[in-house]
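The aim of this short unit is practical: by the end, you should be able to scan a pair of folded records and say something sensible about each. We start with the first protein, listed as its amino acid sequence and then its structure tokens.
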Amino acid sequence: MFKRTKVTDGTATGQGPDAENWDGKEVGFRKKSKVPGVMITQYIEKLPEGKSHPDFTRKPIALTIQEGKFAFFKAIVTGDPKPTVVWSRNNGDVSDPARYQSKYDPNSNEHTFEMPHVKPDQADTYKCFAKNEYGQAMVTVVLNVIEVGFKMTKAPQQQAEVANCNFKKVLKRRSKVVPKAEEPEKKEGEIDPKFWELLMSADKKDYERICAEFGVTDFRWMLKKLNEMKREREEEQAEFVKNLSDLKPIHINADGTASFELEFDLLDPSSSIYLYKDGEMIPYTKELGDKMKHCLRKVGRKYIFSMRDLMPEDAGFYQLDVEDVNMFSTDFKMVDFLVKIQEVKAMEREDAVFECVISAPLSKLMWFGKNMPLEQGDKYDIEVSEDKLIHRLVVKDCMVVDKGIYAACAGIKSCNAWLVVEADKGAPKGKKTARKTTRAGGSGTDLQKVAQEQQQILDKEREERKEKIKAAREAAAEAAAAEEPEKTADSGAGKDKGAAVKVERIDKTSVAATTTVAGDSGSGHSAGKASGGAKQDGSHADAGGGHSAGKASGGARKDGSIADAGGHSAGKASGGAKQDGSHADAGGHSAGKASGGAKQDGSPADAGGGHSAGKASGGAKQDGSHADAGGGHSAGKASGGAKQDGSHADAGGGHSAGKASGGAKQDGSHADAGGGHSAGKASGGAKQDGSHADAGGGHSAGKASGGAKQDGSHADAGGGHSAGKASGGAKQDGSHADAGGGHSAGKASGGAKQDGSHADAGGGHSAEEASGGSRQDGSLADAGGGHSAGKASGGAKQDGSLADAGGGHSAEEASGGARQDEPLADAGGEPGITSGLSDIHAIRGQPAELTVKMNTDCDGAWFKDGEPLKSGGGISITKDANIHKLTIHSCRDTDSGLLRFVSGDLSTEGRITVGDVPEFDEDDLHKFSKPVIVRVGQNAAFKMPFQPQESLTVSWFKDGTELKDGGGVKIVREPNHSRLLLRDCLRSDSGEIKIQLKNPFGAVEATSQLIVLDRPGPPEGPVETVETTSSVIEIKWNPPKDDGGSAVTNYIIERQERGHSLWTKLGDVSAEKTSFRDRNVTHGKKYSYRIYAENPQGLSDSLETADSIMAGIMILSGPPGKPKVVSTSKTCINLTWTPPEDDKGVPIIGYQVEKRKKDTNQWLALNAINEPIEDVNYAVKDVTEGAEYEFRVSAINESGAGDASPPSAMACAKNPNMRPCFKDPEDFLVVRAGNSVRVKISYEAEPPPHITWLKDDEPIAPWINVINTEGMSQLVIPSSKRSDSAIYTIKAKNSVGEAFFDVEVRVTDEPKCPGPVELEQTVYGKVAVSWVPSPDQELDDRLYYVVSQHDSNTRMWKTVADRLFANTYTAHNILPGIEYHFRVYAKNDMGLSDPSQSPTWGANSNRVPISSNGVSSMEISFERPPSILVPLKVHTPPKGYQLYMTCAVRGCPTPNVSWYLNNTCINSDKNYYITNSCGVCSMYILRVRENDGGEYRVVAVNSLGKAECSTKLTVRD
């Protein structure tokens, strides 16, 4: 009996759940999960019925992600009772809710562990625990984070770690291939480390090519060195993988992606796999292959790395590492076409050639014909020159079906051209012509010359590398010879044969190079980090502790700025370049952040500790502003635009901030001399503020989404607040605020606010809120305490009125509905609330104000969630007469709650909710803004990531119209992104695509463009004739209305000569020219033209001339001779005429015939002008019997039809009188008795004759039917009998004469067989055969007999006599000892009768019986037991073939034969066809299967015994 081993959970401290609920000390039993990698511990040996321990049905998947992105793991667990799920990590805790969030979706039963804005220190091994009372399940998952950018704090930290001997954290993975940004200066002749990496992953057949590419000529040294490196590499690889095989270099697939493959088994499934390009780590995904550019998929043992959306910058050196060991290296090269393939015109059965020249040697191009890949074969020849630069495709034996577009692809580069196949006019119709030996096509240029020039360039580069290597090796050899032996041994440990080959491992996670420049007279630092580029810093640091930092990814940084004393200048850019020439302030900070653009700052900063910050995404920041002289802050943030600031900030502690999305900031305003604040915030757009704050703590705020804010206003001199909010538009404020405590507020959604008004001089409030419109205010407010408020949704408010001078109130409010304040109550009435509180949404960091209006002046109190509120802590409570206000200066999350105002017994309440307007990531916004370009019929996809939020509404729009899911539109909404798919796009689908994120706090939008490419529309007509002469025709047209989304490149002109069906291409003209001169014309001929517009997507439909255009003037021929009537009939009138006497010198190509019916005036043409009658006679068949016609003829030349001839004489369409005659009648007819008899006789006669039928010269019986029609007569006997056999005579008679014709009709049936047959020998060797006549002999005089003979030698029946009308026959050559049989048949027109069989003749038929003389003789018995005459043979057929197996058996009585396979009877098995014919036993198998093999046995049994034989059947594969 086996005993289960009890184990304990081995989770280390800090890795598992907390100690209160997950002590990790339960004892249990190990269980196996269906999902690999899941460890299950069951606490009890036997589970109760219906209960189960936890298990994972979907486990988290390892993730490699870029720093700052949204990382998450998903898992689905099962178990009864429902398990509790807890997440943990190996090195650290996950208790910080800002960094780690655990969620559960009850609908999908998914547990999600989210990490917003993931950081490098979160890279770790994470564990997921699922536990219930019966057990727990645990699974681990690895998160790899790719660091982006240079961290200022990292360098000191690393130095400290080195000082503390903590080398484990300092060491990083490094590659033998150095990134270009960190590549040290190569020594003369030094070999690139890529050379060895490529060799270790390449096939031996590629060694020579790689050595030639890197200029290595010493193959023996190379092989020795390579073998040593391979042994070292294999030892390193063996620590992590096994069975490394099937290394396939990177290549381009047919779907436009690139991929490389390899197979191996990981010794530790949790080992990390890294991908590098040119020494830099690249992010990839294992699960979401369609979401990222790079993907690494595992299929069994095979690992497949793939890239999509290939671009030229994707070329490079790719490596795959497991932990720190390289497994595979491959080089991805991009080649270009020096000479592209050209259009080919070929005749049928001719070969067509496409040829091109590429910039680098390539063994094979991918050829496509009509969107199908082409391979070498009977139809296509693919040729490559010796230098692998010239490539050719030969389409052999071209047919019309081969025409179409052919393309050559080299990586992501391709070129295409048309193959036009023209029919061979000279080929005889109905016959296949012989294949031509000529070739059509070619590039039309000297390909060999182009290839030689390119080869010379490549050879020159290769020779230069060889010379450098040779010189370096010689120098190394001389240096080695000069050194002492001991020194040589020490220093040569890492070298081979003196080769200066230096292989280093560099940090693959680092994406930039850092340089430090010398400062001026202080400790200034200038740092820059770039990925893929270079940093050049020529700046002078400031004189005291200032830092100038710039970060750029993918670009270059040039810094020529002069920093001042103690200031910090920082700039961050992703994907672009930072150029900073600004002068920072003395003690201030100047920061600029840009994504995808450049920052240039040339502004002189102020003299005090001011801060100037600017953020831009996708654009450029230029700051030429002068900051304030004392502690002021100037901040500007812009996404997608540019910031230009030329403003002068105030002189004391003022703050000027501007934030905008999608716009630009231009500020030329002057601020005043107080500590005012100017703040502006925008979500999704640009913030730009150049306003001047007031002199006494005033605030000026502006919010804009999607637009720009320009503020050139002068703020008031004391404590005033000026606020402006706009969503989707721009705010321009040039107003002068009041001089004391006044508030000016304006809110607009979707429009612009322009305020040039002068506010009142004391405590007045001017507020205006509008959604979707604009406000222009030029009014003068009152001089004391007045309030003017207006709120409108969807319109515009324009106020030019003068408010009163007292305490009047004017209010207007509308939000989703209409709310307007009630009029003021009487001063002596009951206290009441005229305007109460309502629910509002406030933006985090922005001020919020709640107002309650009473009808009388009375006190009140404010409460939040039941707690009383007082002024302080960011909250101000004021009372102005009957108006009570609660102001929150900067909203925070803690300010959310239920606010209540109480005044005596009266109260009103409203809820305030604090949150943020949705935002887009700047990188995602930049990617989304790029246009999506597709072809007609393709699908267009848009994707926009965003941060998960509650109450978020996502809407998609096209040209301002909201899109709904359904039809060709597919909208997918996920928690962190949304996708839009437009299927089967049409040209009309081009336009603006917009996504909108909306929550109660606001909305943000991002726009992109959809461009659908198609063939252009046809050129605009009509085609105008500019000039026509005897030698030139010039035509003109207009460009097409729709160019298909891409510009028209040229126009193609074709011509058709009148009277011909073939269109000929004349040439093409550029898109700028919309006219064409045809100089190859013949005088007098007419031509039609059609014009095509062409763009990169193909040809448009044609524009064709409405009428033919004649070259020169029209010259018509003279009239032909008068037509003559040759003959007439009721269906045809034959005419003839003579050619015209004067053809005016122009050849005649044919004639046109016209007819006119008697008593009418209209002439009708019998043939078209483009279908001339070439002869001088014509048969007019379009006539009506009995009608009279006259005819005329016109001669046709290249100019058209000339004058008509005189009309002919009247001709009547009728037949001439004629004697009846019969047309091809049949004189004999045989019919089977019982069938109907139908005799058809056709005749001609005029006038119609009288028809009479006779039977044997007697009138026919009444049941015989006669059917007469025009030109034919039929005699019909419905059901014939033998007595209907006779000679039938037809008689046709008219006024001209008469005619007779006889038809013999024989009604018969198959004859009856003859009577008994008798045989008699008259002389030796002859036998007389006689028989009784058939009963039908007297009824059928055409009956005769056929005799067949059979003998025992040949065992075949053969006819020995035919067409015998007698009843006897003499057979010859009858030999003794042979048995003979005879058959006699009766035969007539219907066929043979059954045979009459003769008795046997021969052998013992003439033997004389021998008398026994009384002695009784014994009876002879032929009975015998079965025996095998021919046994079975051995067979070994292949699988799927047919098989015959035979043997011969004898026995009397006839034995019963059975077949057995492996002792199982197969007589009734339908898979075997078994026969027994005269003792020959056969078995047939149609298709041999594997289970048909074995021992076959045949058993024959009768009453006297048993016999059997056997054999074996072996089935081969």
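Turning to the second protein, read its sequence before its tokens, just as you did above.
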Amino acid sequence: MSLVNFEPAARRASNICDTDSHVSSSTSVRFYPHDLIRLNRLLTMDTDLLEQQDIDLSPDLQDHMQPQEEAAQKVKQYYRFWILPKLWISISFDRLTLLALFDRNREILENVLAVILAILVAFLGSVLLIEGFFKDIWVFQFCLVIASCQYSLLKSVQPDSSSPRHGHNRIIAYSRPVYFCLCCGLIWLLDYGSRNISTTRFRLYGMAFTNPLLLLSARDLVIVFTLCFPIVFFIGLLPQVNTFVMYLCEQLDIHVFGGNATTSLLAALYSFICSIVAVALLYGLCYGALKDSWDGQHIPVLFSIFCGLLVAISYHLSRQSSDPSVLFSLVQSKFFPNSEDKNPEDPLSEVKDPLPEKLRNSVSERLQSDLIVCIVIGVLYFAIHVSTVFTVLQPILSYVLYALVGTVGFVTHYVLPQLRKQLPWHCFSHPLLKTKEYYQFEVRNAAHVMWFEKLHIWLLCVEKNVIYPLIVLNELSSSAKNIASPKKLDTELGALMITIAGLKLLRSSFSSPTCQYVTVIFTVLFFTFDYKSFTETMLLDLFFMSILFSKLWLLFYKLRFVYTYIAPWQITWGSAFHAFAQPFAVPHSAMLFVQAAVSAFFSTPLNPFLGSAIFITSYARPVKFWERDYNTKRVDHSNTRLASQLDRNPGSDDNNLNSIFYEHLTRSLQHSLCGDLLLGRWGNYSTGDCFILASDYLNALVHLIEIGNGLVTFQLRGLEFRGTYCQQREVEAITEGVEEDEGFCCCEPGHLPHMLSFNAAFGQRWLAWEVLVTKYVLEGYSITDNSAASMLQVFDLRKILTTYYVKGIIYYVTTSPKLEEWLANETMQEGLRLCTDRNYVDVDPTFNPNIDEDYDHRLAGISRESFCLIYLNWIEYCCSRREKPLDSSKDSPLVTLCYGLCVLGRRALGTASHHMSSNLESFLYGLHALFKGDFRISSIRDEWIFADMELLRKVVVPGIRMSLKLHQDHFTSPDEYDDPSVLYEAITTHEENLVIAHEGDPAWRSAVLSNSPSLLALRHVMDDGTNEYKIIMLNKRYLSFRVIKVNKECVRGLWAGQQQELVFLRNRNPERGSIQNAKQALRNMINSSCDQPIGYPIYVSPLTTSYSDSHEQLKEILGGAISLGNIRNFIVSTWHRLRKGCGAGCNSGGNIEDSDAGGGASCTSNNATINESQSSMSQGGGNATTGQGPGAVQHPPVAAHPAALPAAHPPAHPSTLGTSHSSHSVQSSLVRHSPARASVASHSSYCYGSRHSSLRTSATGFVPCRRSSTSQISLRNLPSSIQSRLSMVNQMEPTGQAGVSVQHGLPSSSSSSQSIPACKQHALVGFLGTEGGSNSTDSQSGGNASPANQMQAKKDDVIYRIQLMDPSQVLEGINVSKRKELQWPDEVIRLKAGRNSWKDWSPQEGMEGHVIHRWVPCSRDPSSRSHIDKTILLVQIEDKYVAVVETGVLELGAEV
């Protein structure tokens, strides 16, 4: 029975319901027989006599109640026990006494379930007793088991040895009766089978599974196990019920159907049901095909259809996550898009997490891709199978496939990962295949894709998508008829086994092909050469051997963990018990091996008891390990009460504030982890593997749970930034190098070059972990913290902060779109009426002359006059930057509003500082209070602000936050912000590129998860007696991590040991021996990562799924997802390229690249007469008049490149060249379009695009483009005036004028054999420019300009292209420098020429662009003067502007 809904009489009288959630006491309780007798009497007595009964309590409670009874009359407590809806009895037990006797059930369903289980336990127990399964003393033992199972429904064991959590566990009460019912049912079924089955029809590997003797032995084993229930549950060998169901479904799905690990109980049931449905659909086809006629050379078409569908369904199932929540969410968003109603008053309504939408898009894209791919591969493999290739080419085809899978698997999963490890084969001291980032001290860009990574992914794709499906289809074809024969399994059971075996082998090879080649090769060799007579066809051999090998791998990892952990030369005793247990465990080594085998068979952890050398087997767990979906939540303003935010400031410890960095790291891994795993950057991996990511301050354990085809589900556990002493020792162990070790036993003879010493190699083999990568690149945040106390120590620094605070308020109020509304508000006008007086002064004592710059010493306060004296200039400038300027005179309402707001803001700062601004601690306290938005309006003169609270939220709060950033900038350039324009632009830039918020604000978390480039916050840390303020600055960049792979059985064993020690054994010692550092197993780091409160991670992520489709580098190698939209786009783009290419190829001077890029037009006349252009200039004007002959085409000016020069600087007016063309032209070479090259659209309408001309400008003149093939220019085809002057090439420098338009197509003759050398072609262009025309400015200046000046003019005006060779020479922060070293050609370009504008884009090696401006050292022109001793180029790459030192580029030539 179970008691529920007890209600005290005292509360009943006052109509107050008992709504407390009572839990059972977690301490041991002594029960007394007279308590049970008393309760039995109470249940049978009349309710009127209950109140006359005296209290009969247990001895402990009697002693406790005696003093109170003597002091005053005790109020009796009566609880109603409802027998029927209107029938109840009163029980005079107090709450604690009842809870000590019975568990309190919270729901009616728990009562119903308890009654049903109690009846089942009694019924099944009586059946087994009647059948005579137990004799003599075992009857009494069995009755004790029945009694314990029934009593656990009334009072459960708390804590239970298999309970995963502290406190009362409601589920654990049902464990014993459920397992008892299962065992009793299994005993009865096995006994029934042994008595009714007399034949041994089915045999596998010589074993008859339907042998009655075998069934009787299994029945007796279950009987013994049932009688041992008290010991089994005391040791904790069986999990709680929900864990067992999840574990059972997961194991069956993995080993029988080839599924993946699951993330929850619902996911396990969903995945298991999907597998059963798939088998049911395929079973009918297989059964029908097996019923058809077979012969040696003919396979039924229906079986080929079955094989095609089997591959397609296996492929689809392998690509789907076991968690259906994202799929359900996708369906809901498609069919019920408006089902989620948001509350507009919710503070989190504006904060949107991008991850759910990203996951839905990924799942949608994969489903669309599967719709196409499954049809294609189904038809393809059907065609292959129906072609009888698997029957005609036997046995040669089998040998070829086995050789292929062995070779490809060995290279992909062994050779390449070993060559890429940090210590290959634990013999070499560095990787033999290094990444580009290996020798970089600081990684600044995303990881570069290496050739061996491309090789790895292509081999992997061929292996799992081609080789393994062919092997399975080959075995299906050769084994199906034999399996379904009456001699084997018959048609019905044979069809089922064929379907299950084929589905399992295909799904497992699609999902995780890492160790499949070992299984295939071993099975082939074992059943071909060693035990050929025992084979049950190669299909079933592969099926059963795959299950066996998975268990053998587990046994291998367990034994390796045990031997590493108890090795005598590296044992670390954490306590005296460890020293005792070490020699005690030696005689039990044989038993330890048996335990390891049993635990490997059931996939249970093997944990060290109390961290010692004694190992015991824990209960079975799923791969996910932890039974509850425990996710740490960051404490912020969205989940705490307002009063606690203002007073106690919860979550101000470092661990809670730093957890956001691990959350961002989780999002980064969600984006790139699956792709990086497929590229082999983490080495070999399998389900349940554990890795540690270690950097300067981040140390996280990544647990891989589900591994599918193109998806990985993982969980990240972030450790403390400032860990314990033991954690620091283990962090040192995984970060220190062993290359310098020169030991050999007891001496130090050294080691061979690039090799490890003997001691180092020996030590690396006796570790439960290994370093895989030292430079794993991942996007994250670099953290910079500065002490706010040191930055505000003196009064002058506080005065600067206050000044910026006031200027920030003025900026935000003048830039607000509601300014005119505020100025017209009558309530505000009335509240500020006193401030309109020119002689008004605010003499609040909170104002301090030491920190207020506009403090009036004569009036002892802040007067309007003194305020205007300091800030009126700033108000006028801010007002002038508005689109609609307002009156900003001294007596204007705008100045009055600014004055009132600034006084209010400073008074709020003083109030928050407890009117002790001269004290640094008080000032920092007030500054932090205002920074987080805690404004206390304490003066009646400031109550006008309540007319519109947006003034506080949108003006004053941003003002105090912006002042902190401006104060930081002050240290780099103290006097820079004295200029109002500079200060205004700085605030505007910070507003665009910097997020300034309190770390408890949900907007802070949203900004971090949205990958904001920079963030700033003021942190108040109160932890372990510390009370300090820090200014935290975050900058997004690429971080470098060390990837350490840990033995997964080591992690599971240590986790299980900690759970048992803390939950069941209740070891509260914070310095217990099981968490002391053990470098060989990383014991402290692993135990610290357990769920709280067992461990102490600062962040545990939810189970997050990463898809390969989101990895950009992988998409470039393999291509994107195959969907209808992508196919349509590909066909359309290909058709357009073909049309343009064919159209350009039909013309004599055509160029495919020109046509594709829109860079030029075809020549329209091939036999036009050559005419020299005549250019005349009027003396009084600057416009050029060009005379053009027939067929002439007008060229755009070269210097006036519309993509390069801003609108604020109009281009010059160079002369235009008119020309006509002969049938022969200068051949322009094709320039291939590199993916890394940034193209600039040509603006020429002439025959050849400017970026494909064979003549390019360089630093010394015009030379052929480096990437083009050589083009020869005939001398005979040149004008006579130019040929006569070629003899002076060696004597004179090129004298090109500014703005010369170079001729694109030059006449040539096929009969000429003389051509200009490449080194002399620059002179030709100079002559062409002189011949063609000149600039009006040059004609006015005459010959006074020196050749050097003319060359400088040409260099500045002619737009030429460059290629970026060294990205480290890019000046990515020069545009936001506070010193204004460079004078920019345009302010808009300056704002766009730096990382603050590039966002996620960054200049890469090989990119090309054109130069639009140059800064030269020691130039007389300030606009062209470089502040360093090197020339700086301003380059436009695509729509980005980049400032780069000239030595970091390669000049390609002129944009002609």
